Every structure is written in C-alpha cells, then in structure tokens.
Amino acid sequence: MDINHFVKIAEELGVKVKQVTDTAELLDGGATVPFISRYRKEVTGSLDEVQVASIRDRVQQLRDLEKRREAILKSIQEQQKLTPELEKKINAAETMSILEDLYLPYKPKRRTKATVAREKGLEPLAEKIFAQESFDLEAEAAQYISEEKEVASSEEALQGARDIIAEWVNENVELRKKMRNLFIEEGEFVSKVIPGKEEEAIKYKDYFDWAEPIKSAPSHRVLAMRRGEKELFLMLDSCPDEISAISIMEKTILENAANSSVEQVRLAIKDCYKRLLKPSMETEVRLFTKKKADEEAIKVFAENLRQLLLAAPLGEKGVMAIDPGFRTGCKTVCLGPQGQLLSFDAIYPNEPQKKIHEAGATVRHLVEKHKVEAIAIGNGTASRETEAFVKSLGLPKNVIVTMVNESGASIYSASDVAREEFPDMDLTVRGAVSIGRRLMDPLAELVKIDAKSIGVGQYQHDVDQSALKNSLDDTVMSCVNGVGVEVNTASKQLLTYVSGLGPVLAQNIVSYRNENGPFKSRDEIKKVPRLGDKAFEQAAGFLRVRNASNPLDASAVHPERYSLVEKMAKDLGASVTDLMTSEELRAKVVLKNYVSETVGLPTLEDIMAEISKPGRDPRETFEVFNFQEGVNDVKDLKVGMKLPGIITNITKFGAFVDVGVHQDGLVHLSQLADKYVSDPAEIVSVNQKVEVTVMEVDIARKRIGLSMKSDPFGAKPKGKKSEKTTENRGKTKEPEGDLAAKLAMLQNKFK
Asked: Where is composition skewed (Basic and acidic residues) in this entry (predicted)?
C-alpha cells in the first residue's frame, strides 16, 4: 500500500502513522486483533482492539479501492482512451463513488437511447448544440434527415441529439458530485401506503404518510421503511425537491446566452434528471443510507451481544435445569460441575396434569442425589408457574432458584452441535441442558448458537449479512479471548474462537485431549496435529492449563515472557510461585529494570497485574434475581405498578425489559431516565437489573409500555427535548405505532 494511505488512516483515527504501518504489518503476518492488542503493545503503541480492528477494516477498504482503480485504468487503457489527465484524476480519486463517476463514460453500457442516436449519426449535431452557440437550429437538424439512418424529421434528429446530450450531462463528474450532496443534504424519505393495503399493512401505520430528512433519519426507521417497501406495503421515495435539483444542473451546464441551442440543452437536462440522474442518485443514496443504517444496527447488535456473552457466570456447580411447559410437562436435567449430563426426567407440576406431589418428590430426590446447588428455569411458557412450584418445595436455603433467558436454546437443540453432543437425546432434553449450562457459563454455551438467533439485535435479518457476521465474529472472538479458555474442558465451539485456532485446530485439540487425556502444560499443546508455531504464538496466551507444573500456564502471561517472570523471581531469590502468591515480593519488583528493546512498560504492567490474580475472570460475580411474585402474566399488570426487571435488548429507540410475564416491555428512550437521553446504551446494558413502572398495557396488541423515571407520571423533565413534534412534513418524532412494530419485529418474544 502507498504510504499516503497509511497517513490517511492515521489522520482518520487520530494515531501515528507508524502505529498504522506496524499494525498493518502484524495483520498481514497473520496476527489476530486480540493477540495484537494484548501482546504487541510495544509495536502498536498500545492500540486497543477497536483501534486495531478499525485499521484492519480501513486497510482492506483502501486495498479494495486500489484493486478497483487498477481494473478501471486497465479497462480504459484497453479502449485506448486513457489520457494523462484522466489517469491523473483516476489516481487522485479518494472514494469509490468518485472513481466510478470518472469511469462512467467508459463503462461498457447496454443499448441506450444515446447509443441508438449515435448509430444514426447524430453525435456531430449533439456536439454543436452542446457548444450552446447561436446557429440556425432547424436548418442544421434538417441535414441529418436520412431514410437510410431512419431519421424522418428535424425533430427526430433533435431528439436523438438531446438523448446524447442527456447522457453527457449524466456523466459529468462535477455535476454528479453536486447532485450527490444535494440528495443527501436536502433529500427526504417519503413513505406512503400502497392503496388497498391499509389493513394488511397496519404494523406500518405510521409510515402510511411519512416524510423526514434523509441526513437525519435514524437507522431503525430507514430499515423499517425499507422492510415495508420490500413487503409491498409501502412506496418509498428518497429525492430532493425537483426544482432545486434541475436548477443546480442548469447552473452547472448552461451558458449565460439565450438561444435555441441553450433551450435544447435545457430540455436535455430535464430529460437527464428524470430518466438518468435521478434514478442513479436515488440508487446511490439508498445504498449509502442502507449501509449507514446497517452499520448502526450492527453496532447495536454487537454491543448487546458483548454484554450478553460477558454476563456473570454461576461457575462450576451442580445444576438442575428445567425447560418449563404445561401439556408436555417440564423437561428436567441435572448437570455436573463441568456441565456433563447426569440425568434427565420429565415432571408435570402444572396444568393440565398438575402432578404436584410426584413432581416435588422427583425434584427433592434429584437435588439430594446430584448435590444440586442451583436450579435454572427457562423463561418461556409456564416459567413463572414452574418457578413458584420449585420455590414452594422447601429446598435447602443454599440451593439457588433463578430464571434463565432461554432465547436461542431451541436453535441449539436442533443444531448439529447438539446432535453431536447428545445423539441419543431428544430436542427438549438438549434444550434443558443448554439452559443449565447457560447459567453456569453464558459465554461457553452461547458460542454454540448462531449469534443472530440469540435475540439481541435490531433488524438483524435486514442488514448486510456478511458485515453482520464479520462484526459478530469479531465480538465473540474478543469476548472469548478476553475471558480466556480452559483448554482441558472447553468445547470445540469455544476453542474455535480462540486467537489463531479456528474449527480444524479446535477439533484437533479436542481429539488429542480425548486420546491422550488432559493437557499437562501449555507446551504440550504444540503436539496437537497441524498446530504450528504461528498458531501456538497466537493462541497460547488465551489458553489456560490449570494444575500445570508451571503456575504461569494457568495465567494470561504469554509463554514468550515466562523467562522474564522467572528472571524477576530469581532476582528476588524466590520462585515464580512465590512471586505470584506474595504481594510483598511483587512490590519489590522495579519494572523499569526489565525494559528492553522488545518489552516495554505496558507489557510489564500487564504481566504484574496478571500474576497478582492469575487467570482471573473479568466477568462480574453472579447475583440471583427474582421477579415480582404474583405477576406472572400480562393480565396481571396494572398501570402504575413498580416491578423488578432485566434488560434483554437495547435499540436506538429504547430498551426491552423482561418483567416475568412471558413478553418483554419497552422502555422508550424518553422514559429511560429523568434527564435527556440520546443513546439508550449510555444508560442501560443487557442483563442489567432495573426497576420499572408500568405505563401502558395493551393485551390485544401484546404491547407493554414501561418507564425507568423516578416520577414517570409527574411533570415533564426540564432541559433539552428528546423529540420535536410538528404537523408538517420532515417531522422527526418517533411514530407511536412504530414502537409497537419494533416490539413485534425485533423481539418476537411473545411466549
């Protein structure tokens, strides 16, 4: 890559050019984002994961731009139309849109009106008219009347000339730049219902006659309107005022003189706008706004997913998991401390069987037999009834009873992963196992499920699926490597996301472990087939080996730095174990004495932090959460009730909260706090425990409105308004019905 590209990236990200070039070199050498940000701080100048990933993505964008530039230059060269001036402009183009504008006149085209006109020999007439000089237009046009060329009249000749001029105007690079800016800065999204579909499209009611500026339309509304259009309920336009657009075109193209040639060009300009430039710009704007909306939605999804993956784990304890139900009963499994399936059964404490005594006896027996320390109950159908039943059994006080979000458990139970783990078990047993393991370690279990199925996204099925997958893969990898992985107990799916591994090496590790027993050291990992030095370098620091002879194997200290820690210990006349267990000894280490050409203070500080708490889990400590007793169904909700709840999903327009009634309620961003809120993510996080007030209950529409304000029914808060209401077009107020639509479309959690 050209050094200018690295300079550009550095300016965009606010970092030094050397940081960009060195990071790009590491990435090109096969290093992963987690590895670079954690173990190559001296090389990158301590760039974090976000910065490293941004450099990676921007480098790829610019390389794609260069690849396209080379293809365009080659194409024009082959046409023998590449002039030094054009080549200079193409080489100077900094965006794909400018590059494509320059290529447009030379791009192979399908047969157009201008093509037909050229075949009729009308290009000289078009050139003379486009010069906009005064001449006898009628007489000039008459010269092109030809039976052979199928030009029957002067007007037909002029029409052909205008078709050619319209194409020239459309290919004007300066004009396209101006029009692109106009469409984005002054254009409007205008949405209308398709006549006759009013009832069928009721969920899009607020978009039946809706308009707002393109530049300020939030991502969720852009995606909502596009979905309505795709489902053939809405007609969507995205253009500026036509008079303004044509005015800009005329000012750019027309000469000041007033003559018949100018009038012909004026007609060609109007034709160009309606037939060529408007559709072209509208397509560009739609792609631009879609990409922008996708990026915002993907960012929301990725952050929600991160918070869900990093939810507090219960840890290695005996767990009973119950997948609740009515008619089909409650599938009940018991799991050992490592998540191994010990037993499975079915109990029927709820309607219609209501075998409470038998079910109670089974639960008590299993709790005692398997030394159960926690009971996880899925939050689906019959969850609250099952929770009440379990809590009524008088189990030992040390047995935790808690609800677990089972979103995605059914996806797991029908997956190849579940069939591989439990080939002889039915779907319900697998689902119950997933619920229990999700309590023990959310990260280890959720990596087995397609991230899109977890239910924390915003229009995840409407966004660019490739970009979504890349972002979610980045997020999962970041979380897995941030927490660390115990190599002797991790599943193949979890190992897959470890830096430098992937599916093949992950399977090889599991196979080696099954054949040879637990790994006794990190160094033994090198014996895994096809796991070479590069893969070991990338993965080793994120893999943990408990009870190894070298205590550093259970830490995040990379093996390449073991000798450094050993030197620290030796200099103090102690062992590595002594150094790791004695705060007094660690306090005597003078870090600057160990700085070298390859190791600086950032790495030394990381090492000292790690050996003080080797293998520490960065996730929060698990806390039991209980819903309000007696509130089990939407029908139990009353306006004004204050209830405990858990944040399940965050969008740009608010947060969804589970209050234990099988359906999430929505806290609109205007109800998230007593102050103005522009981004819900600044106030709440997924899995956060909150107290909410019921503001609205609409059973028929399955809609629950909630508030987190201290006095939601009191006076409106002073200060900046969160929304601007107006009767006119261009309004920016969130459509009321839109919230209900999002509740239905985003969550799909109606149990």
From this structure: 720-736
- Domain encompassing residue 645: 634-720
Q: Would you say residue 748 has pLDDT above 90?
A: no
User: Tens digits of per-residue pLDDT, 530-573?
Assistant: 999 999 999 999 999 998 999 999 999 999 999 999 999 999 99
Cα–Cα distance, 82 to 76 (Å, whole number): 5
In tens, the pLDDT along 609-618 reads 999 998 888 9
Note the pLDDT of residue 715: 56
Query: Which tokens sit at 595?
Result: 């700085």
Rounded Cα gap, residues 621 and 19, in angstroms: 36
Q: Looking at the structure, tell me whether residues 120 and 101 fall in a common domain.
A: no
Boundary of a domain, candidates 410, 440, 470: 440
In this structure, are 230 and 277 located in the same domain? Answer: yes
Q: What is the side-by-side strand order in the sheet with 188-193?
A: 209-213, 188-193, 234-239
Please report which residue ranges of 31-172 form alpha helices under DSSP H. 33-39, 41-44, 49-78, 84-92, 96-103, 113-119, 123-130, 137-142, 154-170
- By three-state DSSP, how is residue 211 classified? strand
> What is the model's pTM?
0.85
Which one of 440, 474, 505 terminates a domain? 440
Same domain, 294 and 335: no
Q: What is the per-residue pLDDT across 175-232, written as a single tens digit (0 to 9) for each?
A: 999 999 999 999 999 999 999 999 999 889 989 999 999 999 998 899 999 999 999 9
Separation CA 460–CA 86 (nearest Å) = 42
Dist. CA 498–CA 506, nearest whole Å:
9
- How long a stretch of residues is the chain? 751
End-to-end Cα separation, the chain, in angstroms: 53
What whole-number distance in Å separates Cα of residue 269 and Cα of residue 253? 8
Domain count, the chain: 4
Give exposure, 605-618, as e/b (b: 16+ Cβ within 10 Å).
ebbbebbeebbebe
145 and 293 in a single domain? The answer is: yes
Least confident of 45-54, 137-146, 330-339, 738-747: 738-747
Residue listed under structure tokens 């189990």:
395
Strands in 319-323's sheet, in edge-to-edge order, are 341-347, 330-335, 319-323, 374-378, 400-404
Q: Could you tell me if residue 575 is left (phi over 0), alpha (psi between -120 and 50 degrees) or otherwise beta?
A: beta
Residue 722's nearest CA partner among 648, 672, 685, 681 is 672
On whether residue 732 sits in a domain, the answer given is: no
User: Do 92 and 126 reside in the same domain of the chain?
Assistant: no
